[in-house]
Structure formats: C-alpha cells, structure tokens
Design goal:
homotetramer; alpha/beta; 8-stranded parallel β-barrel; two-stranded antiparallel sheet; about 20% strand
Amino acid sequence: RKDLFFILGPCVLESRDMALQTAESLAGMAASLDVNIVFKSSFDKANRSSLDGFRGPGMEKGLEWLQEIKKRTGLPVITDIHAPQQADEAAGVADVIQIPALLCRQTDLILAAAATGKIVNIKKGQFMAPWDMAGVVDKAASRNPGIWLTERGTTFGYNNLVVDFKSIAIMSGLGFPVILDATHSVQLPGGLKTASGGQREFVPVLARAGVAAGAHGIFMEVHPRPEMALCDGPNSWPIDETFSLLQNLLKIRDALHA
Amino acid sequence: RKDLFFILGPCVLESRDMALQTAESLAGMAASLDVNIVFKSSFDKANRSSLDGFRGPGMEKGLEWLQEIKKRTGLPVITDIHAPQQADEAAGVADVIQIPALLCRQTDLILAAAATGKIVNIKKGQFMAPWDMAGVVDKAASRNPGIWLTERGTTFGYNNLVVDFKSIAIMSGLGFPVILDATHSVQLPGGLKTASGGQREFVPVLARAGVAAGAHGIFMEVHPRPEMALCDGPNSWPIDETFSLLQNLLKIRDALHA
Amino acid sequence: RKDLFFILGPCVLESRDMALQTAESLAGMAASLDVNIVFKSSFDKANRSSLDGFRGPGMEKGLEWLQEIKKRTGLPVITDIHAPQQADEAAGVADVIQIPALLCRQTDLILAAAATGKIVNIKKGQFMAPWDMAGVVDKAASRNPGIWLTERGTTFGYNNLVVDFKSIAIMSGLGFPVILDATHSVQLPGGLKTASGGQREFVPVLARAGVAAGAHGIFMEVHPRPEMALCDGPNSWPIDETFSLLQNLLKIRDALHA
Amino acid sequence: RKDLFFILGPCVLESRDMALQTAESLAGMAASLDVNIVFKSSFDKANRSSLDGFRGPGMEKGLEWLQEIKKRTGLPVITDIHAPQQADEAAGVADVIQIPALLCRQTDLILAAAATGKIVNIKKGQFMAPWDMAGVVDKAASRNPGIWLTERGTTFGYNNLVVDFKSIAIMSGLGFPVILDATHSVQLPGGLKTASGGQREFVPVLARAGVAAGAHGIFMEVHPRPEMALCDGPNSWPIDETFSLLQNLLKIRDALHA
C-alpha cells in the first residue's frame, strides 16, 4: 500500500497554528491508513494574480514552522522555491523541493534545487507537452537522480486547464514517479477578477482517474475551511473530507494491483 | 456488476464473417464476465478523411449482417446513422442508434433518431463543451427519454484530442448514462496524410480513468488484427487483449462500489 | 480592386422584405465601391443550439426569395445546404453553394454540391487543421474545380474560437481562394444558455487582419438591427457600419498591392 | 509614421561583432524609413529547452556590448532579465527592460523592473488570457507608468502556439502600447528534440495582420544567417529581408490612418 503516496497540505502557511493542526490531522490519516503522506505548504506565493494577494510568512519564518511540523508530526515536508539562492536554505528543512509549474523551464532554478541532493518535484508547465519534460529532467538529473514529476493541467483556451491523462503514462516513461495534482488541475486561472477560481467538486473525479491512470502519487491542497483560505480556496479540498477520499483512492490502487 | 456496460466492436463492418467472429468473441466475454456488451459497428463511414477510404457495405447489407449477429450471438447492437431518413430502417435492427460526434448538432438527425423510440447514443462533438450538450439532450428528449451521451475527446490544438474527465461528471449531471469512448479519444485526427492516426497504447489508461471517473459505460473499437483494419486501425484495441482489459476495468468499478 | 471580394448578408432569411432590403443596401455598396459582393443568407439553420431557435423559411420559399434578390439587385447569391439531396435544387438558384463547417467532412454532401458544377465554398471545421482541408478539397475537386475555402475559427477551449491567421496562408497553398469569416470567428459557441454568444466589437479587428494576412475574400454576417436578429445577432455586423468597414479593408488591400 | 515602432535584433548576443553589425544594419533602416527601432538582444537565455543550449555572454559582458551598440548606432536597446536583482544593473544600460513571457506572473521581478523607472515590456504568458494581464499591469503600474505589453502567442495544444488577434484590442484597452511578437509567435515550442522549432515563413503573415489589427509595435528576432543562429533560428527573420518587410508593414499602417 506504500506504493501510492500523497502530497497534502494548505496552499500557503497561513499561520503556525493552522499549519500545525492541518499537519497533525494528516499525520493521523497517514498512521491510520498506513500510507505515506508528505506535508506540503508554501512560505511565499511569488506569482499571485494580484499585488494584494496574501503571499505568506516568508522563507525564514516559513522554514521554521515546517521544521517544527516535521518534528512534531513525523511527516516529511515539501515546499517550493522561486529563486536559485533559496535552494540551500530550503533544503535544510524540506525533504522534497518543489519547482513551480511556471518556473519549470528556468535552468538555474532546476540546477540549484537538484544540487542540494534532495528530491526535486518538478511541476510540468501549463504550456508544455509531457514529452518535453525530458529536457527538464535532463537538467535535474545532471545533478541528482531524485526527481518527481507532477501533472497539474495544461492551458485549454482561456481561464481553463485540462488534464491529459495520457501525460501520466508518457511522463512515467521518463523513469521517475509521476504525481497528479488534483487540486491545481481544477483551477480556473484568472477566473476571478483578482485571483484564480476553481471547481473543488471535481477534485475526487480527477484524483480517482489519476490513480486509475497509474499515477504514483496524488497531490491535493487541503484546508480546514477552504472558503476562508488565503490562497487557492476555490480549488482546495476540505480536510474533513480527506480521509474518506484517500480511502477511495487506495481502493482503486488495490484494484489495479489485485 | 451489470452497472458498467461496454460498447465494443470493429469500426466498420468489414465483412460478414469478420463481424460475426468478432461478435462471437465478445458474446463469450459477456457471458464469462457476466456483463452487458453492446456490439458496435458501422455500415457506412460517411466522413472519411480521404475519398479513397473504405466506407463499408452500405445500409442494406450492413443491417442484414447486424440482424444476423444479434440473432446468433444474442448481443444487442448499436450502429450510427448520418441522415434523418436512415433512422427508421436502422431502428428495425439496431437496439441503440448512434449519432456521430460531428453531427451532434444536426437537429433533424437527432429528432429522427429519437422518434424511433430506440435509445439514442449521442457523441459529444469535438467542438463542444460538456454543459452545452444540454441543448442537444433537450432535442432528443422531446421525442424519447432513452438517451446516452458519449465523451470522445475535445479538439486540442491541431491533430490532437484531449479527454476532459470532468466532462463525465458534468454530463452525468444531465441525467443520462455517460460513456467514455476510449479508442476514438486516442485518435490523432488527420495525423496521417490520408487518414487519422492514433495511439492505441493509451487506450487502457483512458478506459481505466473513465471507469474511475464514474462513467457508466466504456466504448472501444476492437479488432482481431488492428494493423490490418480498414478503418481506425491505429486506435483500435486488439480483440485478444480485450478480455483482460475488461477484467481490469471491472475491478476498478468494484473498488468504487466497495 | 476586384481581387478582394466580400460575402455579406443576414445569417438567415428572416423575411422576404428584410432580406431584399439588406441586399439592396449591399448592391449599392458594391456599385459605389466597385467591388464584388456575394449575397449570403440561409434558408434553414439546421444546427441551432436549441430546438426553439428560429430555423428559417425552408428551402422552397428561401430559394424563391434568393431568386428574386438576384434578379432585383444583380448580386450573385450564396446559400448553404445540409443534405446531398438539397444540392441540385439549391444550384438552380445559388451561384455558390456553401458547406457548413460542422459538415465539411461529410463526403456525400461535398460530392453532391460539387457535382452541381457551381462553386462550392467549404468552411473549415472548427475541429480541423488547415492542412487537413487537403482531403476535403480532393473530394470536391474530383467533381469540380470551383472551390473556395473559408476559415471561421478553431475550437479553443470551451465556448471560444480562435482564428489562426497562418491558416490563410496554409489553405491558400492548396490552390483555391481563401476567405476569412470575420463574424462567425467572433462567436462564443454555446456562450449563451440556448444560443451562441458573440463579440461583435472584434469583427473589424479580425477582418482587417484577414485582409492583411492575404485572404482573397472576407465573409461577414450583416444585419440592419443585429440586436433584433433571429440568429447570430451577437456576432453580426450592423449594415449601417458596413460601408465604412469595407472602405477600410479596401485601403489595406490597396496597401498590400502598392 | 513614428506611431508604429519596431523591436528588432538577434535572439541572443552571440558575439560583440555579430550584434554590432546587426544593429548597424537596423540603424540604417531606421534612418532610411524614418521609424523608431529598438535594438533587442538577450545576454542570457535562462530557460533553454536543453542544458546544452547556448545561453549567451552573461550579464556583465552583455550589458557592455549593448552599451557600445547604443553609443555607436544611436538605437535605444531592450534586454530581458530573469531575476529581481538584475533589474538595476540592466537599467544602467537598457532603455526598456523586458519580462519574459514565462516569468510574467513573478511579482518581485515585475516590481523590481518597474522600480528602475525604465519602460517595462511585459510579454503575456503563453498560459494567460489577455484580460488577465490587468493584474500584471497593476503590479508594474504601482511603481512606474511606463509599460508595454507584448502578445507572443498562446498555448494551442502541444508544441504549437496561436496568436489571438483579438488580444491586441483587448490589451490595448488596458491603456498601454501593445506589441505583436511575430517571430516567437511562429515558434513550435519543443518541436525539435532539444530545442524549439519554428515556421519562419509565416512571420510576414502575422506581422502584417498585427499591424492591421492595430498593434503599436512589431517585435521580430532578426539574424544575418538564421540557419546558423545559436538560438531561435527556425523562427528568426533574415536581416536582408527585413527592410522590405518593414516597408510593407508601414504601408499597412499608413492605410489604416489614411
């Protein structure tokens, strides 16, 4: 059952308490379901739609909170960086370093992340074909074989994304674990005036399809109260409906291996 | 187990013998797996890429063959029509009448098919949003409540299609069974000079994802020797790998209902 | 100046008087600007979004009106057909027979239209690559060398179209005149609940770009009162702003040839 | 005639001599045609498809060369930055600072560029709707009203881009000059195994359509020998065909204003 893992957590580190409580919930699920969960949260949202969007606590405080979360829950943590010079400091705490989709072509960022020796989770840009991740993987692999690839939807007209599930098979062919990001994939980019909209109700549909399509991991932003989230609320999944969703996903995974 | 059904068969009625043998194979699977299989084949391919493409035996002979297949295998049959005046004759044999995707907006065709009283399986046009099938459904439902809706991919740039699995949930919301066509969805329209290409290797990925996403039925063109098929070979699934694929799909369906 | 021609008229023949008055306006512009204008209108809208949409006067009455328009204005006329058996009757009146975009892959319709000996204007399907019109052209050219090709936008996500202006150059390479349909290209298919929306304000932008890109003809649905139109109002261009738009387009054409 | 300006130059500063000679050619055209030309070249290609792609001379040497080019040709220069900390140094030389399309959502980069007081040319991301540039513009305008916006195509399926010419009108509505990038718009992203392909033959089509659609400026990468270019060769326009193309574009501009 350990062969399907999950990356879960709030979009942004809204506060120390909120992040810690969410992580403790998730740690409970990991123990109860006997699965691997990586806690995900960002210390800085560097590409908000609007200048007024909440960006987070910043790197210093954010990494401090993540360190505490690791220690108290035992969950490994993943966080994203936006500049090469953040890589080493982030790697001091994070078990996995994430490259945002819009930055997946920035060579220096990939190299710096990979050079830390930590696993690097690279999100496929919304503007890229799955087979073109080969060039991105080559950059990272020149420093470090620990690579994960995440599908989070492709530009589909304006203000919409579509997940091409063939992408999971195609990227798996590159030889690294492939993750489906089921929450960003239901974003409606720019769909709200000053932020991105989302269609939370489709998260389970995409997550289930992702497992059935053969994804090694499922990524979902979860939140205790999505409607109050400071970032990505419309596409975040409620923490109190997360346990049952994970159960369903594990059943599909079991069926595939039966 | 009867709640996941399959529409299976060769793209076109290549010959009486070939169609009958394929149907007998499928009837064996239906019995062995205790599932509903509808035999699908076309009597006329009315929209080939090239004037030289094989079109089929025509309506008269085609319906005769389908009648014999029904009788000898016990499978219900589905076939597609391209003009309103074909509806009644087709309905004399077919249990389900199919509306091709490119014709799903032709009002008179929908009305004529629905007026036969047979179930009408309407393929969503490659140019349509799933919610816009509401208008199409209204046309058919004005004559007959027996409607199925089939997702077969949406135009995604040139010479490519993408399946938006959210579409399965959206169209299910219209109140009728939704089918995923896992073979036409891997077509590369016009990808070959005088015919459409296809990526057969992704058929199981999409079929599994379709079941997991909640499709009521899975449609697949199957062929004893896809590389020799007179139509849609590149995206047809081999008949001798069909039984194991159906087994896998049923396991996923069972997992969803467990 | 005769090398840039126009196809203009109301979407549908709303009434004899309305069509005739519009045609007389257009005939005046043709004379005054010394350009070729083909009068366009449909006798039947066979693929409305909703069953309740106005379909038109039908073939018999519609062709009678078009005949009268030809006679009284001297303008050649173009109208679209939806079934092979309509071709001969339509060709008795129409100077050009049009194949709707959604039907451009229907072999029998193309062959029947071409067999009349009239010029056939084939609209490129919203689901097709421009180079794949080669197969369509081959079908028509097997009967008749008089072919026009019309670009009217390609599916671009849901409820939107985009014109790829490279298409004008690519289709010109097939050896036949290429027309940009500047009004259907600003449609938002299905954008209204029971009809397609449109963005009339962008018609001049696309029409100017079309001429500059090298289109041989510009197609625009024009209407005396677009907001009252029974079909395609949101993307129709007002007749009283048509003369000045044609003047601007001709200036661009002259600049290209200067 | 000064109301249509051009941004022209080689993709990357391949060598001091090559850049200087290209700029001198362009300065000759600017004088002869009495138009404004801004010389464009990059000192670092930070997001090549492959790790082995040529990246350029780096910031220090690159800015030195651009300074010399400014001095010797009198042309203003534009160059792109990829990190906030590059803004001030680049602004010491560049008249216009460019934000790469993939980075147009990175808030700190926009703010740093705008804070220099120089004009900032922001390329619209391939993943963005034109109206969503409002949020990007707000970020820049919070520091500096000198903003240009550049359309360079939108993701259109895999390995292809499409220019929506409506975007020129929509972005013009934001109140800043809008530029059409006619060379990156014909890129086939990732179309070659380890680099992006391109379709140079369509550059004039898009450039002419851009002027006709109302663009204030046209951006084109030009090169003395595109087939030998170290970057973006397949979509670069030959310098020796540039003068005649500019003449044609100016004629269209004149026709619009006649």
